[in-house]
């Protein structure tokens, strides 16, 4: 699977927007960009995913660069409950090989939110 | 739905003992994954099943580890004999492959301590 690069940690203030970057310069045409987050003492949870177009859901927005070599997870108004480790993951979902469904987690970005 | 259920939540055992971790996936999901998380190695995939059949067990550390899925609603991960280096949080996750969504739902994890 193609590799992703994320900053180790970021800080934000409560109620402010947060932009979490992810670089994936070796992304292939069939790689989807997935974001998961892991709150303290919990299992990871799905945040958002996309292929080429920007995506929005109730949790966050995903902005994907035109060349797809980078993406940004946007939390529009950070809350204390958003403090977590955020993982940017590429997953190949092309072809007939439906077996490649696992996630390969990197080290992620630890987001701290200050009140 | 109650989500992915794992038991026990915490397990403390002595080296050499057999340990069995249990997982009940979300009803109707056709993929089940076992992950392990440690400070040194992060989150890593151990094995995953599709429709109760093991698809990829290349992440299983060694023969001391085994996993089964006797039916669609139950899976076990067994370590025999256990060693201190097996101490970690073990997560089970499930997903339903439907279109391009493929998000994984993680359980709360089992924290294993081997003394």
What is the rounded distance between the termini of chain B? 36 Å
In terms of structural class, how would the helical and strand content of chain A be classed? mainly beta
Order of helices and strands of chain A: EEEEEEEEE
Overall 3D form of chain A = globular
Overall pLDDT of chain A: 91
The most extensive interface between chains reads: A-B, 22 and 25 residues
* Helix/strand order of chain B, N-terminal first: EEEEEEEEEEE
Secondary structure class of chain B reads: mainly beta
Number of helices of chain B: 0
Poorly predicted runs of chain B are none
How many helices of chain A? 0
In short:
Chain A has 115 residues and is mainly β.
Structural overview:
With 115 residues, chain A is mainly beta. Chain A has no helices and nine strands. In chain A, the strands form two sheets. Chain A has a five-stranded mixed beta sheet, with no helix packed on it. The radius of gyration of chain A is 14 Å and the shape is globular. The N and C termini of chain A lie far apart (38 Å). The model of chain A has no long low-confidence stretch (mean pLDDT 91). Chain B has no helices and eleven strands. In chain B, a hairpin with an 8-residue loop joins strand 9 and strand 10. Chain B starts with a strand and ends with a strand. Chain B has 115 residues and is an all-beta fold. Helices cover 0% and strands 55% of the residues of chain B. Classes of the chains: A mainly beta (115), B mainly beta (115). The A-B interface holds A 32, 34, 36, 42-46, 49, 51, 87, 91, 93, 98-99, 101-107 and B 4, 31, 33, 35, 42-45, 48, 50, 55-56, 91, 93, 95, 97, 100, 102-109.
